[in-house]
């Protein structure tokens, strides 16, 4: 079985991941975003940049130089049903302030990001205080 992404694939391949895309012109969380657009999205991953596309959103390219952090959070709803949330923190003035990309296959998302040398931060759950 061939791995999802290998170093040799990077020379001639751009990885594509389908998922749900949630955006907001302002706000730093899913519930606090304003002027939001939700829909299906396509994340293209290459060794030099990330590109997000959607039917209802302009196409945004994020060169590595403008990406401050990539945060992944894996969640499991039921046995065998899991999804990954990808949050991109960036310095790109024309893009929506809040972008969340969600896919049902964590390996399909993380393997190309790792192979393309993007640093991925794992989101930590907030500590419960009593």
- Overall 3D shape: globular
Sequence of secondary-structure elements: EEEEEEEHE
**What's the total helix number?**
1
What's the helical proportion of residues? under 10%
Q: Tell me the major beta sheet.
A: 8 strands, mixed
- Counted beta strands: 8
Overall pLDDT, averaged? 76
> How big is the Rg?
15 Å
Q: Which percent range describes the beta-strand content?
A: over 45%
Q: Overview of this structure, please?
A:
Strands 4-3-2-1-7-6-5-8 form an eight-stranded mixed beta sheet. The chain starts with 14 loop residues before the first strand and ends in an 8-residue tail after the last strand. It has a domain at 9-67. With 130 residues, the protein is mainly β. It has one helix spanning 106-115; strands at residues 15-26, 34-45, 49-54, 60-63, 67-78, 81-90, 98-103, 121-122.
Identify the notable features of this structure and list them briefly.
8% helix; disordered C terminus; globular; 130 residues; 8 strands; 8-stranded mixed β-sheet; mainly beta
Set down the secondary structure blueprint:
Blueprint: E1 15-26, E2 34-45, E3 49-54, E4 60-63, E5 67-78, E6 81-90, E7 98-103, H1 106-115, E8 121-122
Parallel strand pairs: 5-8
Antiparallel strand pairs: 1-2, 1-7, 2-3, 3-4, 5-6, 6-7
Could you give a short description of this structure?
The protein is mainly beta. It is built from one helix and eight strands.
